[in-house]
TrEMBL record:
Protein keywords: Metal-binding, Transferase, Zinc
The organism's place on the tree of life at top rank: Bacteria
Organism lineage string: Bacteria, Bacillati, Actinomycetota, Actinomycetes, Streptosporangiales
Keyword Membrane attached: no
Necessary cofactors: Zn(2+)
Entry annotated with the keyword Zinc: yes
Name assigned to this protein: 3-keto-5-aminohexanoate cleavage protein
Xref: InterPro entries: Aldolase_TIM, BKACE
Native source species: Sphaerisporangium flaviroseum
Spans through the membrane: none
């Protein structure tokens, strides 16, 4: 079992509304401030979605480039851009995200019902995105929302070989309506199905956030937290800000005797150059 815990913060996402969640970072300044606070609190990776001037999700390439530059200047976090975007984003725009030059990116391994929407990730798109990460030297994190996604991950690795960086690192996204339930039996089944030698973190959506956090720590996994995944700290109590969620994850990791992994160690762990 890894002796430390890689903590990823997902501060914004594409779904939460700024109007309902004033602490949601949507401008570049807000994102950079959040990133610094979360790094101080124990995060080593930031999973980034950006918004436009009206706080709507966007994959605008110039904005993404500015975001990568600003986060690199202000923090030593591993910068992982979302290639998932919003459910309405075209495949071509999602592929172009890699041109912003991040350290890492998310790569979802299959289509999934996503609440009342559908998050589309057909095989040809996944395969093209994966090969692009290899040729551009970007470390993919395999986002797994359902057991079938793990079968597609095996197929991807068998067909195209290992990822840039050498490590197969996955994120189990649990508690989306349409995907994995956020419980321990489901987590155990998913972990059993992962490729030999893969490492993993887990993300609990909404009310799944705490069971998934404690389950992942107990099972040797890593953690992703942030306002992309939950805007509620406890029943009836909104999250103060992203750093509050990272602080809680870091405290839990300390108690589990697997303290937060520093950014330098995270870079070596993930194979980020
Ligand atoms: N916003 C979701 C539709 C990712 O970032 O790669 C997809 C998502 C996954 O958040
Ligand atoms: Zn995301």
């Amino acid at each position: 079992m890894t002796t430390s815990t890689l903590i990823t913060v997902a501060p914004t996402g594409a779904e939460a509304a700024k109007a309902a969640n004033p602490q949601l970072p949507v401008t570049l300044d807000e994102l950079v401030t959040t990133a610094k606070q979360c790094e101080d609190a124990g995060a080593a990776v930031i999973h980034v979605h950006i918004r436009d001037d009206d706080a709507r999700p966007t994959l605008d390439l110039a904005r993404l480039r500015d975001t990568v530059t600003a986060l690199r200047a202000a923090t030593s976090l591993v910068i992982q851009l979302s290639t998932g975007g919003a459910v309405t984003d075209p495949y071509a725009d999602r592929l172009k995200v890699l041109d912003a030059g991040p350290d890492a990116c998310s790569l979802t391994c299959g289509t999934v019902n996503f609440g009342d929407d559908v998050f589309m990730n057909p095989w040809p798109f996944m395969a093209e995105l994966y090969q692009a990460t290899q040729s551009l030297a970007i470390v993919p994190e395999f986002e797994l929302f359902d057991l079938g996604h793990i079968a597609s991950l095996h197929r991807l690795l068998d067909r195209y070989g290992p990822p840039h960086g050498g490590r197969v690192h996955c994120d189990l996204v649990m508690g989306v309506r349409g995907g994995f339930d956020g419980d321990l039996a489901t987590m155990a089944a998913a972990v059993r199905a992962l490729p030999e030698g893969a490492t993993w973190s887990a993300t609990g959506i909404g009310r799944a956030s705490l069971p998934v956090l404690f389950g992942a720590l107990a099972a040797g996994g890593h953690l992703r937290v942030g306002m992309e995944d939950t805007v509620t700290y406890a029943k009836g109590r909104p999250v103060r800000d992203n750093a509050e969620l990272v602080e809680r994850a870091a405290r839990a990791a300390e108690i589990a005797q697997r303290p937060p992994m520093p950014t330098s160690q995270a870079r070596a762990f993930l194979g980020v150059g």
